[in-house]
Amino acid sequence: MIPFNIPPFVGTELDYIKDAVNGHKICGDGKYTKLCCEWMEKRFGAKKVLLTTSCTHATEMAAMLAQIQPGDEVIMPSYTFVSTADAFVLRGATAVFVDIRPDTMNIDESLIESAITKKTKAIVPVHYAGVSCEMDTIMDIARRHNLLVIEDAAQGVMSKYKGVPLGTIGDYGCYSFHETKNYSMGEGGALVIKNEDMIEPAEIIREKGTNRSKFFRGQIDKYTWVDAGSSYLPSELNAAYLYAQLERADEIYSDRMQAWNTYYDRLIELENSGYIRLPYVPDECIHNAHMFYIKTKDLDERTRLIDYLKSKDILSVFHYVPLHSAPAGRKYGRFYGEDVHTTRESERLLRLPLYYGINYSDINTICDEIYSFFEGGR
User: Fold this and answer.
1) Per residue in 225-241, is it b (16+ CB within 10 Å) or e — as a string?
2) What range defines the domain where residue 254 resides?
């Protein structure tokens, strides 16, 4: 079977993991954690990057730094992973879901301002498939209403908006290095911090509420518990695995982009014939080929296509079920306005296999079978 995903592996990961083990430092914030953070800070021009145990935890840290409190409201799309909402729900906030744009699957920036109330504390744009939200508009709204912007850039590592790396535009950015992402450490993430004054509070939260980071830098002679926090430090073994890939980030980016473009070029005739819709990337966006999806006519057609491809030993998958339709979404959030696109577009979307090193003959096989499905009248 052609798998949907194979975690990235460039060949030096095990050497770096062995090096970490031999260095007798595997619990986090060692050599490879520092190398990963420094690489991202330099590459993305970020003020500070802190490696975390997951993007979920990076977002939880952002919610804590934003001082989200019970009764606050946070605006976000419903078409996203549960972690986007969980981070704020855990703080007692209400998730206010806004409809998406059908072209990019990102939050509809034109609907955000009318969803703002006196309780609104932050806006959380989610850069779906590594394609940026319309950040100029979102940042303008945030400035005028004195709101924080927390970018869910889980899928956006190496993507840009008007030349600026995703995750570095808002007050905080959150990356994912899960095994399904372009660059992986199995489970892991990172928090990007724009405001220099928030670096020390972030370090304290990440180090279980202690000023341990200052101690290790020699700034204090002992460390102690100074605030609320948790354990958001990833293992040095995970960081070593990730750093091997960051060293070859451009190679991975190029490989995935070639695969993405192959899909697009092969399937464009089906879009031109009205059978499917292909991903849309606005001119001001540089994406990272995180995923390749197509949109079918409706849910029934998507289900039949998934089943057909599976019968041909090809694993394709759908994606998010809108959060506002889930039990927890109804309990902890509300949908502002009308759900014009979120549910309908989510039911049409189908993700195709895409990973570092995918065989191009497999891509051609997948495309051939999609043509067979539609042109065969199934």
Assistant:
1) eeeebeebbbbbbbbbb
2) 249-375
